[in-house]
Amino acid sequence: MNRVDKNYLERYSRQIVLKNIGLSGQKKISISKVFIIGAGGLGCPIADLLCRAGVGEIGIIDNDKISLSNINRQTLFNTTDINKFKVEVLKKKLKKINPLVKINIFKKKINEKNINQLISKYHIIVDASDNFNTKFLLNERSIKLRKKLIVGAISKFDGHIFVFNFNNKKNGCLKCFYQEKPSDEILNCDQEGILGTTASVIGSLQANEILKLIIGSKNILENSILILNIINLKMRIIKFKKIKKCICA
Ligand SMILES: [Zn+2]
């Protein structure tokens, strides 16, 4: 066994020992490619945990710079990072956390024109954005390109998570649940406020669902929304039906 293999086994030893993962699960994680939209309160814990877990390739898109008001929840940024581009700081930090992971960064906004090219090579698409236009665009293209999509949303003390596997035509989509695009006001952290713990809990749960998808876990959140309130600690899973005339039909 050469040094690289030894390092690989030791780095991931605490998760390889888990029965649900093992060496075969770790190999699945190591060859998976995940694309994260948004490097903020959700994107930071998602990128951090997936990088530590050894996801082979992580793409991250965000065109924002770090501001002082981001630091309460965006866990990979320091005060000395203010005014730097989020994705540039993330790449440096993630390479230090785990040099085995390939990190691709995109300093731009995702839109209707660039989305197909950006997401095409990734297996799993992760919405960590703060607006419904992006969430609905990711939903529509993930259906077309038959991707797996994990959507997260946070507002005040509430978090929502959706998991969609569009390889399975029986599954509904984001539009089946919302039908009409909700107002972005509820996702506006500047006005509504957000605590770092809410963002980290929801981002961590998104990362958890991503790893479960990769290792082929049976208990995937499908055709359901997970709603968590961190004040009363109530977690609900609400099922919803696929709509016949929806874009996912
Ligand atoms: Zn639908």
* CATH class term: Alpha Beta
What class, by secondary structure content? alpha/beta
CATH architecture annotation: 3-Layer(aba) Sandwich
Q: In total, how many domains does the architecture comprise? A: 1
- Low-pLDDT runs of 5+ residues are none
What order do the SSEs take from the amino end to the carboxyl end, as H and E?
HHHEHEHEHEHEEHHHEE
**Ligands bound here?**
zinc ion
Question: What's the rounded overall pLDDT mean?
Answer: 94
- Overall geometry comes to globular
Distance between the termini: 50 Å
Explain how this protein is built.
The protein is α/β, with parallel strands linked by helices and 249 residues long. It has a single domain (15-239), classed as 3-Layer(aba) Sandwich (Rossmann fold). The protein contains ten helices and eight strands. The protein has helices at 3-11, 13-16, 22-30, 43-53, 86-97, 115-119, 132-144, 174-178, 189-192, 196-215; strands spanning 33-37, 57-61, 102-106, 124-127, 148-155, 158-165, 224-229, 234-239. It has an eight-stranded mixed β-sheet, sandwiched between helices. Helix 4 crosses helix 10 (196-215). The site of zinc ion has 8 residues, from helix 8.
Summarize the structure.
With 249 residues, this protein is an alpha/beta fold.
Summary keywords:
249 residues, alpha/beta, Rossmann fold, 8 strands, binds zinc ion
List the helices and strands and how they pair.
Layout: H1 3-11, H2 13-16, H3 22-30, E1 33-37, H4 43-53, E2 57-61, H5 86-97, E3 102-106, H6 115-119, E4 124-127, H7 132-144, E5 148-155, E6 158-165, H8 174-178, H9 189-192, H10 196-215, E7 224-229, E8 234-239
Parallel strand pairs: 1-2, 1-4, 2-3, 4-5
Antiparallel strand pairs: 5-6, 6-7, 7-8
The structure holds zinc ion.
